[in-house]
Each structure stands twice: as C-alpha cells, then as structure tokens.
Amino acid sequence: MDLLQTIDDLIRFRTETGNTEEIAKAAEYIKNIFSKTSAKVEIFQTNASPVVFLRNCESIDFDVVILGHIDVVPADDAMFIPVIKNGRMYGRGTLDMKSFAAVALNSMEYVVQHNLPLKFGVILSTDEERGSKSTESFMKAYPQISARIVLDNDVGGDITKIISKCKNPVFVKIIAHGKEAHGSTPWDGIDANELLLQTWQNIRKIYPYYAADLPQPKDTWFDTVHFAKIEGGQVSNIISNYAEALLDFRLTENSSVENLENNLQKCMVDGVEYKIVSSSTPVVMDENNQDILDYKRFAENIMQKQIEFEHIGGATDSRAFAVKGSTVIMHSGTGEGMHASGEYVEIESVKQIADIQIKFLEHLAAK
Questions:
Q1: Residue 232: which CATH number?
Q2: d(C-alpha 206, C-alpha 268), whole Å
C-alpha cells in the first residue's frame, strides 16, 4: 500500500459528518482496497451512520483491534485538496484522523499479506465528530466483541506522548422555566434567562472558570466544565419564560456522575432543573502494563526519542473496549490545527506510527 497516496485519496472524500454520499464513497473505496485479499470487509449499516469493519478472521474475539473514524468536521473546499509542504501534509482530516485511518488499513494489509497469526480487526466509524452513535450501534450488534489490545490513534498532536488517561465526557442540559411579561415591567414576570445565569454562577463556585488569558493550572487532572451552548428568549421586549444551556463536563476517574449530580442539585435555583444528556467512562491505563511498555519500547527505538505518558481531557471511542477489560494503547502522530483551517500532520510522524504498529504486531504474533 502506498500510505501517502491512501491518505491523499481519503482526504479528497468530503466526509463531513452527515454527508452520507461522500461517506458511502469513502467506505466503498476502503472496501475496494481489500477486494483481492483475504480480508473480510463489512460496511455495517446503522440507524446513525455506517461503520467500516475489517478483519482477517471469522472471530470477533480479537487479539488486536485498531479503532478510528473517517468523518471530519466541516471545512472550506480547498481543505479537501491535500497539500504537502515542508514535510507536512495540510488538509481536513490530516491530523483528525484520516492519516491514521490509512495507517490502520496499512496494518491490516501487512497482517493479511504476511499471514501473521493474530486475530486482527479494524473498526472505522463515520460519525465520531458528533458523538459516535454508529459505534454504539455497532457494539450493540456485536455484544460479544472483544480485544485483548486496542490501538487508538485518535489522540493526535504529539508522537512523543502516549496517553494513559482520558476523562469521562458528561453532557448536562440545564432547563429554566420562567413567566412571560412585558420587558418594561419585569416585576410582572420571572426571567428564565436570569434563573439560568444564577444557576450557572452557583456551578462556577464548584467548577472554576479557566481561559487562555488567565493563570494556567500546573496540574490539569481535575473535573472541568464549559458552557457549550445557551438559548433563551425569543423577542427582545418580552421576559423569557424558557431558557436552556448545554454544559460539557469532563470528569476524572476519581470523580463520578453520582457526585456530579449531587453538586448539580446544590446549584439549582427555583424554576431550574437539570438532565444528564449523555455520560461515558474515563479510559485509564496502567503505565506499567507490559503490552504498553513493549509498544513504548518499539516506538522509542524507531523514533530514537524518549516517549512520555500524558493525561488528556478529551474522550475516545476506545472506552467501549476499555470497559470490557482491553488494554488500550493511545498514541498518534504529530500535528496541529485539529478542527481548524490550518490543520496539518507531520508526514514523518505518520510513517513512524505505521512502522511502530507493524513492529508491535510482529512482536505480538511471535509470542
């Protein structure tokens, strides 16, 4: 497989989440790559969006699975034409994460061509940027699916870091009910917007505000929240009778949804309620896990650099396997501009991730 050409091809598919036509074309492209091999490729259809499922065996009890996605966030037309400059590839999805989806396909091709004695699979979702409902549907359809080791390349940014902890994303809706009145006589109404803001101020007493122009915490491994979305009021001269906000909490493994709910109960003012929209689980790996240390050793040998462990606030689809007891190795290439107009990946880091995966898979197959 020509790795760079595969990345180039994938980026040219405008697979913005929800673009069913382009997603279908990209899935078919992947299927065609393996049409003349022994790999089994299924385009699993869900109510949400398809999942591309590749494997070298009939079993769903895998030795190794690679997780990823091929959908991207929206971008201008020009970003779907990849550009290589100064050792970097620019374009939508170069870092998040079509380059590493291509790496997963490269690993599948290698396993099949060299007949490695591993039960190996690749799972690529197509709506990760909007919550991975397709992955949830896929896991429900295959309730017995398991993997001893999961390689997760969707933690991009720095190849010198292996992620050992990810937080639990919990989305909460705050709903305020007020009473309409004319804007000139606020004493005749109850302002839902005001109730919402009062509640928000209470929440901030427990979960402080952080920003780029404020002092940065030395240790960021604590619970956080940001005000993701707020709506309230329809007409400027009417007291709002309804307002709502969506809050994005990120909880460490030392916290819990139950503790969050206890805190939220304390913050509610009269006329305001909350609802847990979605929650998951943090992914926490033992940094002394032997498989992780073996992978780290191969990575350091190939890169000729020391690799450190890091904790991040972002979530990962690998949590679906972590709760089943899988060892999750979260490692990706180097780049910047994820979800931004200048998104790029360092090409050498992509090649190194591909080499690391193959060396690690050979090591596992030799056991």
A1: 3.30.70.360
A2: 13
276 - beta bridge partners?
172
Q: Is the peptide bond before 97 cis (omega within 30 degrees of 0)?
A: yes
Residue with structure tokens 């494997």? 55
What is the per-residue pLDDT across 270-293, written as a single tens digit (0 to 9) for each?
999 999 999 988 999 999 999 999
Asked if residue 229 and residue 206 are part of one domain, the reply reads yes
CA-to-CA separations, 215 to 88, 210, 228, in angstroms, rounded: 32, 8, 22
Q: Give me the pLDDT at residue 155, please.
A: 85
- Residue appearing with tokens 């805190």: 263
What letter represents residue 164's amino acid?
S
User: Which structure tokens are listed for 7?
Assistant: 């990345």
- The model's confidence at residue 48, banded by pLDDT at 50, 70 and 90, is confident
Q: What is the pLDDT of residues 136-187, one digit of tens each?
A: 999 999 999 999 999 999 986 899 999 999 999 999 999 999 999 999 999 9
Q: For residues 67 and 115, state if they share a domain.
A: yes
- Dihedral over alpha carbons 72, 76, 79, 81 (to 10 degrees): 110
* Residues 29 and 161 placed together within one structural domain of the fold: yes
Q: CB neighbours (10 Å) of residue 316?
A: 25
CA distance 293 to 15: 35
Residues 264/245, Cβ–Cβ less than 8 Å: no
Instruction: Centre a 10 Å sphere on the Cβ of residue 27 and count the other Cβ atoms it contains.
Output: 24
Burial track 158-195 (b if 16+ CB lie within 10 A, e otherwise): bbbbbbbbbbbbbbbebbbebebbeeeeeeebbbbbbb
Question: What pairing do the DSSP bridges indicate for beta strands 327-331 and 146-152?
Answer: parallel
Whether residue 147 contacts residue 64, with contact meaning beta carbons closer than 8 Å, is answered with yes
At CA 268, angle to CA 264 and CA 272, rounded to 5? 120
Q: How far apart are CA 143 and CA 54, in angstroms?
A: 17
The tokens describing 256, both together, are: 């819990």
- Give the gyration radius of the chain's Cα atoms: 23
